[in-house]
Amino acid sequence: MPEVIVNLHMHTRYSDGSGTHQDIAKAALAAGVDAVIVTDHNVLVQGFEGYYKEKNKKILMLIGEEVHDQARDPQKNHLLVFGGGRELATFAHDPQLLIDQAQASGGLAFIAHPDDPAAPAFKETDISWEDWSVRHYTGIELWNALSELKTIVPTIFHGAFYALFPALVAHQPIPNTVLKWDELLSTGAQVVAIGGSDAHALHMSLGPISRVIFPYEFHFRTVNTHLILPEALSGDVNIDKKLIYEAMAAGHCFVGYDLPAPTRGFHFTAQGLEKNAIMGDEIPAKGGVTLQAKLPSDAEIRLLKDGVVINTWKNKSSCVHITTDAGVYRIEAYRRYLGKLRGWIYSNPIYVR
Questions:
Q1: What is the pTM of this model?
Q2: Domains and CATH numbers, the chain
């Protein structure tokens, strides 16, 4: 099945980013992703969806929106909306109403940066998601690259250091977000995990040091959402947009940190007595289920059931586990990069019922 690399959750000059849609397209072409989803704050920008081409390369740009209540202080409960097709910011005062309206419009609703801590050194407040009473959303942003940065910059000097050495930033999704995801999955709900860059390409200065935090192209080489499609992209914007959003809604995807090594080619599948399954699917436990993971290169592979690690394989590019137990099974893979063991791949679950 074809795989498409999507970088999502980014901002332009229409909200609080520094670049244009053309800048994003150019960076995406250079980084080698297949599609981007631009999500400016509280504005659904029209006129930029489509394919952008350069020589023999092309990328698909889609337009979504990051919606939050601007009258709320602090401005928590940010929601990513994809494919809604209409402005939804007028519903931001009520998170459940916003989710319901996104769904009624045919869109997908993802809770953005569920844990987004304060960074006092940079006058950044905590903008985590708070209203966990909401229902019927598609999923959560498991790994937000910019939120993770806020966890490691207690001083301006830390910020300057990571501005100079951005490859040292990413370690893994914020652990509390992963715990929350497992808690949500334990209720029986199907909650799709995605990874977002939250790219702003912000210009910052500290004395003689001036840097972009962080350039779009750098972000597009790091945390991505990889989709497994039933067929290859056709080149028709409307057809391909439908393929991408349907795969995302079904959880046919994984989060990959592509800077240490490419994650393209990862597969997590299940074979049962009655059917086969991929990430996001359900499969009956009756008769036994064989779970298989295949990675593009060796890593530490962890198989989790209901949020608990039940098996670990070190320095392997594949693994097999046979079970008759119902549960929510998912894969995490880790690689050593720049002196530390870092999260590399986070699969969506296979639901053994």
A1: 0.96
A2: 3-257 (3.20.20.140), 267-352 (2.60.40)
